[in-house]
Amino acid sequence: MISDTHVPKRARELPAQVLAAIDVADVVIHAGDWVDVATLDLLEARARRLIGVWGNNDGPELRRRLPEVAHAELGGLRFAVVHETGQAAGREARAERDHPDADVLVFGHSHIPWDTVSPRGLRLLNPGSPTDRRRQPECTYLTAVVREGRLDDVTLVPVPRTP
């Protein structure tokens, strides 16, 4: 899971580590703010399966090719993907209201990694950004395994800065 790649504004290209992870993943989820169409084209060419949405920094071409909200069933879990969820305060309640049929909500926008569970059991995940850490200690993305209807091995993966 990745979000907020912001290529070429925050990085000239996706880090090699991220591309290697895309190459071995069964599914890649991108929660918006691609910024350039070339990144979408690259992920469509490399990923076995790509689920993506547009973000607030994405222009007309990306908005034409991507939905604002995506839904997919993966291994018996119902995923929803969206770029923005609003402020951190009250996020779980809004997510339950806005995505009542989802088991997992992947979102971006803040560049802040997030992993919580709402009162009804909705898992909320934000992978951070692999290219623009903002005030975070490092750039990040998430990996996970869907196994027998469960989301297992959710791992926040740091992306070292390249010189």
Output the radius of gyration: 15 Å
Q: What is the overall number of helices?
A: 4
State the major sheet. 5 strands, mixed
Spatial ordering of strands, largest sheet: 3-4-5-7-6
Query: Portion of residues in helices?
Result: 10-25%
Distance from N terminus to C terminus (CA atoms, Å) equals 24 Å
How would you summarize this macromolecular structure in one to three sentences?
With 163 residues, the chain is α/β, with parallel strands linked by helices.
Question: Would you give an account of this structure?
Answer:
Belongs to the metallophosphoesterase superfamily. YfcE family. Keywords: Metal-binding. Its EC number is 3.1.4.-. With 163 residues, this protein is α/β, with parallel strands linked by helices. It has four helices and nine strands. A five-stranded mixed β-sheet has the order 3-4-5-7-6, with no helix packed on it. The longest helix has 10 residues, at 37-46.
Features:
two-stranded parallel sheet, 4 helices, 163 residues, 5-stranded mixed β-sheet, Purple Acid Phosphatase, chain A, domain 2, alpha/beta, single chain
SSE order and pairing:
Blueprint: H1 16-24, E1 28-30, H2 37-46, E2 50-52, H3 60-65, E3 69-74, E4 77-82, H4 91-98, E5 104-106, E6 114-117, E7 123-126, E8 139-147, E9 150-159
Parallel strand pairs: 1-2, 4-5, 5-7
Antiparallel strand pairs: 3-4, 6-7, 8-9
